[in-house]
Amino acid sequence: MAFRPLVFCSASVLALVLGGAAHAQDSSAQGPSASSDGSDVSEQDIIVTGVRASLMSAQNIKKNAINIVDSIVAEDIGKLPDNTVSDALQRVTGVQITRAAGEASSVQIRGLPNVATLINGLETFTGTSRAVSLGDIPAELVGGVDVYKTSTPDLVEGGVAGVINVRLRRPFDFSEGLQVAGGLRGIYSDQSDKTSYVGSALVSDRWQTGLGEMGLLVSVSYNRRRYQDQDAFNYVSSGDPVAIPDTVGGIYSSGDRKRTGINVAYQWRPSENLEIHADGLYTKYRNLYNNSYFIALPKAGTVTSITPYEDYDFLGESSTTTNAYTLSSMQAYLDQTQSYQGNLGVRWTSGRATISSELTYNYSKIKNRNVIVDTSFNAPSMAINYNNGGTPNVDISGVDMTDPANYTVRTLFDNHSLSTSKQWAWRNDLEYEFDGGFLKKFKIGTRYTHRSVESQATTSSGIASDGTVTLDMLSSDAYTTSPTGLVKGALGVGQYLTMNPGYLLKNTDAVRELFGQASGDRAYDPANYFADIENTYAFYGMLEYGFDIGSMPVTGTAGARVVNTVEQLVGNTVSSRENYLNVLPSINAKVGLTDNLFLRLAWGKTITRPEFSALNPLVSYSPSGDTGTQTYYGSGSGGNPDLQPIKSTAYDASLEFYPARSTSLTVAGFYRDIKGYIQTYSAPETIDGELYLISRPRNTGSGYLAGAEVAYQQFLDFLPGAFSGLGVQLNGTYSNGMTDDPINGGKQRVVNVSHWSYNAVAIYEKFGISARLAYNWRSSYVDSYNSGGTQASTIMVRPTGQLDFSASYDLTDNVTLTFNATNITDRIYHDYFKGANSDGVYSNTPRDTRTYDRTFEFGARVKF
Asked: Is the pTM of this model over 0.85?
């Protein structure tokens, strides 16, 4: 097991370095304090130059916080440790990410994706989701990120897994007045063979006026990333007596993604006890991408032979087919998102009392469009090995796959959708500090939100051609030749032809004419309309306490958050109203065993409401056609308006040792008792008289998540000369999650939860050089259940790891050169159908093989 050698190696290192740390210890050094909600952390304290100072600041936030929190601090303006917020978060103990489309696409805390995301302590979101897409927040605008693993009553509810708070900069965060900074990076991606770039700029100033001190900050970021993912796949198997996959093939997923971010922050301090602020955040996302499919249909012809697996004689390991009907498909997409957040707040202090109020407005719009055209040709001979070292291999002979005369235009899918979401939120807080005694602070507050979500879309149904049009009858710009060497050549398929994605999106009316359709976008289908109005009314009260047990100080919080949720859902054949009350108590305690050794204990209840999109009964489906003996005519996905909130009772404990300002060794244990966890399951549904395999989210009943974490970091100051610039970060997590199976009964693993994960980071900082070599690894995990077919119904992902490198050199006090490389080892993703099928028979056969870009970046930062 990859985790264990790391632990044994780490133990040897610890014996050496902790001994050295005793000599480097400076117990008089005090880091910045951290508030319980993360929104009051002073950036002027934590924004300092250098990796060492960044780690010190993050360590101080963790050490001084009341609850259990891990933080990332930007080392300087525009210098988060990684290129995106999501990438940086993967270095945090207990955090895992998944990757797609050239970036970290989702973030899980201890394997759970149910994370509440805040910006400057305020709820924010993208589209109809409940969380913000962290990739939409430019890293160049970020001052720090806090990951809260335990709750306090003043934190916004909604994170069974935890809460992520992204701290954007404000002008009073800088101790000096005028600040000007900027950066530019060029990026090369090897699989797409494309170059990209990222640029950012920040201007901030603060000044005294006759009306008090004022400050204004404006920061902008523009990110263009061109990428390519590749995938070779086996689909579900069917047939008797020996089943073979219904489809086998590969996908080139290529995209050109552009992101714009603008952040404006104004602060005004008329007097020492009054401060007013106004913030505005705008993010824009535009992704022009396409999926180029090659699809072999091994049963759409004359199957001449099937060779079964030696261990699974009911499944075919290889087959041959003559006169095989074969598809290629070009799926062209344009996804666009615009999001705005405006916030107006005031904070007033009178004696021991502090009153604050904030009014926030969020608006997000997602507009998607896609045009898909399937084309076909006949292969005289097709031989398929479904498990060629974990990847399918397809050998086609007797046809020229680059001759447009061999391709017939078959089916058109022409769809678009629009989703909008708006929210008003008003928060009020009263805090009172006591003068000594057991009670240190009392805090109460209210929060009201009104959110409206609306979604409409066309129906995803295929439009068949008359079968008389071949590609050679079209203009040469209407079709294109695919790349070659899919998943490093393992699929065995060379170049093939598809429609040109640019032509599909720019000349859609001409494409519609080929299929006898009218010009112009299709009307939204009223049956696909979905709307949700949600009001929440929250009140919280909490006490901050402190006392001594002998020479050991004990501090903590105790209180509860009470939330009433009223929801009105309207959709296709659905009209429902929900009104429920949740009482969410929590207790946090911190015991100072010594000056640098702390014990933390926490207990609390949390909820996560279902995603709005998960409540939408709309089904998106894609028919594969009646081209063989497959069980299902196609597949798709949809929502479930009957979903209920996930409820969790959390138990946490941690032991934290801080022998020096940038050195720490921490151990933590956690247990979550979970009710109604939401996972996605597939089941057959009849659509237009045909049987489809449709996946929908479902509440699972009772479950739990339990595990432990260990983390260690240190700079090796005791080493001589240049070696004293060396540092190390190591962390590892063990998690085990089980929940009820709502389809078959019994217990099953929680999806996305790896039993083991770790980070190993080597650091060097000296002589103006700053470098980090970081390796991230996670063990196997469940991707999904109930996939259908004769093979195993559970999809398992194999262990995966990624090695990244970043370095910078301070050319002058104002200019820094940078270099970054990601995915250095060129990792390959594999998942498998593994376990029992619906009849209880075990098998383990390949499903997907995926490869990703390696990226190499050169850039520069300036600051004045």
From this structure: yes
